[in-house]
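Private note to self, pasted from the team thread so I don't lose it. Backbone tokens:
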């Protein structure tokens, strides 16, 4: 009787420790070998391979995090200038990864719900547009860094030429302002050539009244005056057909329009025509999205970015001035047809070059 009681007590202790109910067997057939098998079965149930893997992953991640923190403290103490560069690159990759995940979610939702790009909210449309442009700019650098040990050379080049090789995720706020000013100066160099092209093309206009209005608009802009929206709408019909429609523009005029959208000019004319038309339509769709959202919903940084993309120099402008200009621009652009993308592109000069500038005497 005593051995049976001891065996039953052993069963009870095993059941209590393992947290499971022992199978209903008699004391005569219950052996220590069966008890150890139950212990192993209980431990296998409580500590599954997936849980073990998660524990290993968490341990590895925590160790890597501690090692990275030590490395950053080492750089910050002994190589402070390199630490600033390292920290900027690390933060840039984190921001780019976050935007990439957000863009992926937007595209999945578009496919799942059969949503066209022009029906997206403004911020999502702008996110897709900007992220796509960033990838296009970063793609050549990624290709160059593919050979072995070439990434070290690319790293040095990116440090020396951040504006040419890096994208906005890796720019400091001060660099963002400086580089935007540089890019605007580059596109401003083509303003006079675009106005001259308009004046030359005006000689081919048969309607004398429209021809006079177009020449008056060009001379008004050259004199330093800022045209009003009604001046642009007065010549609107000229840009829906020859000689000023996008499909009728000469190659030289289109190549001068490319820098307004930060597009390369070194492409065949038919390709430039397609790119200009597509980018202008995309901006027109963004204008419609701003109207749906409401101009008052944009914060100061979004206002300045929207004005800058549409050709305005935002350097030194107050957010209220940007809001005023963007309101005028939306009043103009929302009345355009898809066939009038040429007028949209030329207005990036006509409505921006003299904004907030006193007329010349």
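Design output:
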């Amino acid at each position: 009787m005593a051995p049976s009681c001891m065996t039953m007590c052993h069963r009870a202790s095993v059941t209590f420790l393992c947290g499971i109910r022992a199978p209903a067997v008699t004391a005569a057939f219950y052996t220590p070998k069966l008890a150890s098998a139950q212990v192993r079965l209980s431990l296998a149930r409580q500590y599954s391979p997936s849980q073990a893997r998660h524990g290993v992953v968490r341990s590895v991640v925590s160790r890597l995090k501690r090692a990275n923190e030590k490395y950053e403290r080492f750089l910050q103490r002994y190589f402070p200038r390199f630490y600033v560069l390292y920290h900027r690159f690390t933060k840039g990759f984190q921001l780019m990864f976050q935007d990439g995940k957000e863009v992926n979610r937007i595209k999945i939702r578009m496919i799942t719900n059969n949503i066209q790009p022009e029906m997206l909210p403004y911020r999502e449309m702008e996110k897709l547009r900007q992220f796509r442009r960033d990838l296009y700019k970063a793609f050549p650098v990624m290709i160059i860094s593919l050979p072995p040990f070439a990434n070290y050379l690319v790293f040095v080049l990116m440090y020396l030429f951040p504006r040419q090789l890096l994208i906005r995720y890796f720019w400091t706020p001060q660099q963002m302002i400086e580089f935007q000013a540089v890019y605007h100066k580059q596109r401003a160099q083509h303003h006079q050539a675009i106005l001259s092209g308009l004046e030359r093309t005006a000689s081919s206009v048969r309607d004398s009244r429209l021809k006079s209005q177009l020449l008056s608009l060009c001379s008004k802009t050259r004199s330093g005056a800022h045209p009003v929206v009604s001046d642009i709408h007065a010549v609107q019909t000229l840009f829906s057909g020859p000689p000023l429609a996008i499909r009728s523009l000469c190659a030289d005029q289109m190549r001068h329009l490319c820098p307004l959208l930060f597009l390369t000019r070194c492409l065949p004319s038919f390709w430039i025509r397609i790119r200009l038309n597509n980018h202008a339509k995309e901006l027109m769709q963004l204008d419609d999205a701003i109207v749906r959202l409401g101009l008052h919903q944009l914060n100061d940084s979004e206002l300045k970015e929207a004005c800058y993309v549409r050709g305005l120099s935002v350097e030194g402008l107050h957010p209220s001035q940007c809001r005023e200009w963007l309101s005028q621009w939306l009043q103009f652009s929302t009345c355009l047809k898809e066939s009038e993308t040429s007028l949209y592109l030329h207005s990036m000069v006509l409505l921006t070059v003299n904004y907030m500038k006193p007329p010349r005497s």
